[in-house]
Input
Amino acid sequence: MFPQHASERHCSGGCLPRHSEAKAGFSRTRPAAASGPWLLILETQASALPVRSQRSVVRVKAQRAFTLLELLVVIGIIAVLLVLLAPAFTTIKSAGDVTSAAYTIKGALDTARTYAKANNTYTWVGFYEEDVSQPSVTPAPDPRCTGCVGRLVVSIVTSKDGSNLGADVSSSATGTENFIDPTRLTQVGKLVKIENIHLPLFSVGTGTGDTFDARPSPTLDPVVGYNASRFGELNAPAPNTAPYDTTNNGLTKFPFQYPVGNPAPAAQYRLRRTLRFSPTGDCRINSTYDMRKVVEIGLLQTHGNVAPTPSPSPGQYPGNAAAIQITGLGGNVKVYQR
Output
């Protein structure tokens, strides 16, 4: 007779042998290595379970599936929301463009001021606006690009020998063609070009607070008003342009060209609207003007080469706008944004 299995020896009354447990569907203890009848039983169980599971999954998926009508309704709702939200996204992008441009210009001004102080020299920042719908023209139109809107060009140069190169309020030079000698200048950083930005002439701030509308007001000049203390409408005819000099039909003295160097290269830009920083960090607009309380640069987002129309009156523009102000004494730069 076959020897009695250990589980059978310790079982009394009604116990099933291990192979009976397997047939009944129990698997309390699995042998270390299945063989013979055990292997057949295990294979039978393994093949049966996935079938039942697969049927259950199919039933669950069938219960959770969307109908074609439900999908079409969801797609329609998404389409309506996109149409409603598109203007909001456009406004957000516009605000981002104005903000980016404002801080790019602030960075250029801070660079020029820091360079002047660190190197005990003079630096000039020049501004030029051209037609954004056209590629940059070499050389750019001069003295002004009639009707050109939408691409702001900014250049920074410095005096090689640390002097003001004659571009000073006490200079006896006259006229508008007395460009600073390009062989005595060095370029500071790369030429900056900012797309879809226009320099307008904003209504002045009230000076009563720290917001865009309440920002400090530029000095009111008895002859040219506020236009001797700000940059705006660079390509407009006199007197609706700034900085504005009544004696030179709106064109100011001591502009500079881009590029500079020795020997003097051909001019690609003639930058006639300039701001100068001294070794002490103070600034003067167009070099020859007296120091101003603040100098302002206004910024608006354009639609290609079309600038926004002022509304409800000149100098007032709805929507996103920014004003960069530089204090004359100290040359501190601050951005005001609406």
